[in-house]
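Glucose-1-phosphate adenylyltransferase
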Amino acid sequence: MALTRTLLIVLAGGAGSRLETLTEHRAKPALRFGGSHRLIDFPLSNAANSGVRDVWVLEQFEPESITQHLAGGRPWDLDRSRGGLMLLGPHRGDEREGWHAGTADALWRKADRIREHDPEVVVVASADAVYRMDYADVVARHVAGDAEVTMVTTRHDGDCSRYGVVRVEEGRVTDYLLKPDDPPTRIVTTEVFAFTPAALLTTLETYADEADEDGLGDLGEQVLPAMVGRGAAAEYRHTAYWQDVGTVEAYWSAHMELLEQPPFDLDDPAWPVRTPAQRHVGARVHARGQVEDSLLSPGVVVEGTVRRSVLAPGVQVAPGAQVVDSVLLDDVRVGPGATVRRSVVDEGARVRGRAEVGGDGEVTLVGAGSVVHPRKRIPAGGRYPG
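Predicted structure tokens:
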């Protein structure tokens, strides 16, 4: 049987303000995860492993941080002469020009391109969660389900008020609430949706005609409720691991889960999470260095103690320094005798000798390029600069 012509559209234009300074100078999908990977690697790897060969990435906020990482699509076998990877941002020159004012608005502004591409199914996915998913299974369920949209859902035991929450009966979505104050169920959308193109484009055009100068907003505001209201929404339940990392606490927690009980192997040959090759040599632990239950990326140098932590490429931990329960991003330096606990330290930051960062309690955040001076104390839950 011929494969269904599928177009994956990765929504990668949001500013990610809930991640605070971690997304001040980078798009959220460009944020590191697991040391060597970035969040956008997950939907792109899912596409590659699922046999989806046409992928569009919609950019807007800090697009260079994504474009540089994507390397023309080569790591995901998307650097092809026909189809493959396409990067799309805001444009000028026609009636759909302008900034993307939400996810639905972004799709409406690219509607003519979608029509010209003429896919049988459009899969729309965000790039701010950690998960593995066979998009081909989602597409097959959608094609068989006689629906305008198939929502990929999962049971979430945390704060459901941050997501789209649904009620489901016999595989059909009967109610959809966007970020409700009092969620009626614990079943949330994973922000992966399979659409019948004609239904999606018609619904977008309908609401575009009614929209004011603020645009269409997000899919969950009008488009998805309309499809649910027509009885045209089906469910695909994702029962494997899925973790949104849209806050500093969630980002840190997902890394600790990766260390304590890995939800899956990033290097699983059967379903690898692909990323561009690293420029660094292998990690190095000196004779006086100690590492326990941690993940070290290429280029890391450890002369002190590292426990239950994830270190991105180029991190250096000096003699006598301690890094515990923490996530350190690219090229961070931890000086002699310094301590970093239960913290996220962004790229290029310097924690000087005998400084103390974090502690028990809330996660501490040190911004990119910051310098924590010798003997300075940043308390648990602190923000530096704050």
